[in-house]
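Section 3.1: Structural characterization of target chains.
Under the original work plan, the team committed to producing a structural model for every single-chain target entering the pipeline before any wet-lab resources were allocated. The record below documents one such target. The sequence was received from the expression subgroup and is listed exactly as submitted; it comprises 230 residues.
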Amino acid sequence: MPKLKAQLHVHSKQDPLDNIRYTEKQLIDHAAKLGYDVLAISCHDVVIFSDDLKKYAEKKRVLLIPAIEKSIEKKHVLILNADIQSQNLKTFEDLKKYKKKKTDCLIVAVHPYYPGNTCLQGKLEKNIELFDAIEYSWHHSKKINGPNKKAIKIAEKYGLPMLGTSDNHLIRYFDYTYSIIDSSKKTDEIFKAIRKNQIKIVSHDLPGWKLVPVFAEIILRKMVKYFGLR
């Protein structure tokens, strides 16, 4: 069984909320250069997947999976193999109906225990049956990693796999956390492997002193976009 290098939660220039400098094709180029086999571009509240991007990725030997980081009751949820209908979801009940109808999607609880009102926090356990995996986030240091440690405990409690991603907003950190998945290079087989926890997370610690400046840079860029200053 091949081992696929996968990055399943990243953002790009078309993201309506974040100030991202690189285009989707530049992101695909970067992923290919770093030896990735699988990529999901998951912009906030919009699916940017297209046949053009899919074909472009195929030329680079990268499997591109449609994705969205959707705001559900103001909490962020990652939907892999999402379609346009996912953009209309508003509540966890909507998500439940969507998952029942679209059985080929995979739903991930992203950065659930990080600070911020968009993180799932208690909503994760209240809706645990909706989730297929929990994210292990890149934004941590060796000594400061409480949110990921709590996520691991919840994953173990409910028998869910952990999925390493970069949630990339700054391309220089694209390769800091990712997943190696034991699967053939097909979306449905990759999802089966994730559900079976056939995953190895590769994660590099940030220096502790970088945690706040990196987060501040992301927030500052978002504010610049919001106020139309760029």
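The chain has seven helices and nine strands.
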